[in-house]
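Holo prediction. Input below; ligand is nicotinamide-adenine-dinucleotide.
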Amino acid sequence: MSVTSVSEVARWFGEAEAVVVLTGAGISTESGIPDFRGPQGVWTRNPAAQHLFTFENYVADPEVRRQAWAARLASPVWTAEPNAGHRALAEFERTGRLRAVLTQNIDGLHQAAGSSAGLVVELHGTARETACLECGDRLPMAEVLPRIETGEADPACLECGGILKSATISFGQQLDADVIEAAVAATRGADLFVAIGTSLGVYPAAGLCDYAVARGTRLVVVNAEPTPYDGDAAAVLREPIGEVLPRLVAAGAR
Ligand code: NAD
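Structure of the complex:
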């Protein structure tokens, strides 16, 4: 039976000793970064854009890489600021009862809001770095984007000539095993698991909800639209994230 009262969930935030959150693109829409599957999502508006996010296509097709680099250059991520939702989680960390921020996001806004790097687990990597698919060399994205601006449509690795990509996980790419293990370990230790701004359709990230529920951990879903896990949740909150998280955190501080 799920409840939808913010005050009831705020009480749970106050009682919990080990809160773990799983965030998705929905926490960053109020910072001006569109999600994928929400009403204004990149894929909702243009389903063909999914083509750019498939690893096999990226490796095989230089045109896909050119379009991906052009999209990176134009991305709102570089100028986005954290919003009230990100800041509320950074604030809640001060209570010592936020054990992990497991994020599917690649925008770095949790850290920009003040969440400790040690607490943030980037399940799908980061757009703020590039990785060479041959030699693994990593560089700040800020060092590579100027090459696009000066006319290199598909910049190669300067170390080995290999294909460069943002250090993110595309469809068809494996998640880092250490990163998954860190996320599972954090979920194992949680007594309140909160999924925020995610449609919970991407695995293995969404499977962390299964793991939490199987262990008897209270699950809360904060998302504007229905998710496949709403029936498992002790509470589902549909309010905008930037409004509801500050209320939960303020009430949950003790
Ligand atoms: P998703 O697009 O599948 O779902 C986002 C959900 O958030 C939607 O159900 C939407 O209704 C909800 N939402 C949007 N804004 C909201 C708000 N202000 N308040 C409440 N709910 C809101 O996102 P996902 O589940 O994270 O999966 C998408 C994948 O795309 C992830 O793997 C992620 O890595 C990647 N992605 C990341 C970013 C980013 O880093 N900001 C942006 C787009 C996509």
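The longest strand covers residues 125-132. That is the main takeaway for now.
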